[in-house]
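MOLECULE: protein
FOLLOWS: sequence and fold
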Amino acid sequence: MSDSYVNLVNSGFTKTLAKRLGLPRPAHLRRHRQGEPLVPGPVLVVSDAASGDAADAVAQRLLDWDLDVRRHADPAERHGAVVVVLTEVSAPADLGAPMLEVGSVLRGLRPGGRVVIVSRAPEDAGSTATAAARQGIDGMMRSLAKELRGGATGNQVVLTGTTAPTAPSALGALRFLLSARSAFVDGQPLRVADGGAEPADWERPLAGQVAVVTGAARGIGAAIARTLARDGATLVVVDVPAAGDALAQVANEVRGSALQLDVTADDAADRLVEHVRSRHGRLDLLVHNAGILRDKLLANMKPATWDPVIAVNVTAPLTITEKVLAAGAFGDAPRVVCLASTSGIAGNRGQTNYGASKAGVIGMVRASAADLAAAGGTINAVAPGFIETDMTSRIPFATREVARRLNSLQQGGRPIDVAEAIAFLASPQAGGVNGQVLRVCGQNLVGA
């Protein structure tokens, strides 16, 4: 489903009219297209005085990616991105100079530009002043992201422990946030530890990997399958028998295999493992996308509207992940990615059942991180906000319009935006991201 308002305020007479009336003018977002540059213009690398060496090292790696890098701000130049390295700040006063330098070039940031801050986790600080400075970066980043225009986004790579800013996992997160693949990720801190590896081919980082996607017959699930296949993975797509025809079409499109399966069935995990082992020998990536809605006010909620949502959205991912781990069906560096929701973070009226299930997914991810790490892998969640799907197209017009505009980018996301985030978390370069929840919501103005 398309957002006709975005098209209206960006072309012709209605663009001029919207300007005169002071109406919101959400921009067309820069999304990934093969062959296009990673960043649409020069990249400025800024740092505080103490982080200069780290910034130099990051700048060198950006040069290795054939980017046009600057180390000093020129307000007359139009930058495609700004990378702010603040890994060695020791007090809140250290933040002023580098951020004011960033501010001097923001008016010239190109449409679809990026601002990415690289910092360290507050809990790893050696002093109270350093912890205050590091926590201050979080509020600073979120506020900056709300000031950006033209489809530009602001995000943060938070290094944990002694992770270097040029570690594969740190660079992988930085590249994702600089790229057009992160179009609807805005105002988000992404915590990164050591781990992972840079792929041999950045365009096909999942080459040789075997991936399972549940709920893959349509919508976000189908977009996930297509995106993982584009990135080189071999797909097993799963959905209920009632969606068999649509599932077969997706399987044919991605040149994978289809498995008709109710993920809540007692033998679901066993059938999944048998299918994967018989055809591919192992499983490298498991995406728990299958999910349902049964919205009601709690006063009107019955077991028939509560129980299925919990069963599909959280109990099935819990059970299947545990059984696949116990069966030893995963490869050497498994990835599990689950679909959470901003409803599980901020709540939503009429969705106590759905909110419980999606918050449960977040709890599952955090609690399972150690088990996946012990198996050499990771587990993470993606929490979408308002995404343009057949499901959201049935929301009443006025409610839908409010939901679309209630984020910093002032529009709904697309299924591909969720799929790109999942593809990143599935990739080798995301091996240092574990137990995290990445929101794909355009910096939804509700919730953390």
Observations:
- The longest helix spans residues 303-326.
- Residues 31-192 form a domain with the Rossmann fold fold (CATH 3.40.50.720).
- DSSP finds 14 helices and 13 strands in the chain.
